[in-house]
């Protein structure tokens, strides 16, 4: 939850900076998904169309 709060609203993009196209987000490690969600939100708000994401690793919680 804390990580989600840390990145909530942290990203922005001026409309028109990236041409309108279908985009795939790429991230090295997903812990909570907060960074991918925020990136998708910012890109969508700028008029982009995020169609998916690709990650190299998914972090597992410590037991």
Automatic annotation (TrEMBL):
Which residue intervals define the domain Phosphoribosyltransferase in the entry? 21-57
InterPro entries of this UniProt entry?
Answer: ComF/GntX_DNA_util-trans (IPR051910), PRTase-like (IPR029057), PRTase_dom (IPR000836)
SUPFAM superfamilies recorded = PRTase-like (SSF53271)
**One Pfam family, short name:** Pribosyltran
Q: Which family does it belong to?
A: Belongs to the ComF/GntX family.
**What protein name applies here?**
Unannotated protein
């Amino acid at each position: 939850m804390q990580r989600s709060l840390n990145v909530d609203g942290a990203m922005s993009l001026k409309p028109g900076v990236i041409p309108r196209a279908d985009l795939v987000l790429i991230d090295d490690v997903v812990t909570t998904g907060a960074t991918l969600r925020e990136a998708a939100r910012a890109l969508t708000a700028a008029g982009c169309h995020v169609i998916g994401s690709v990650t190299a690793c998914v972090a597992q919680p410590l037991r």
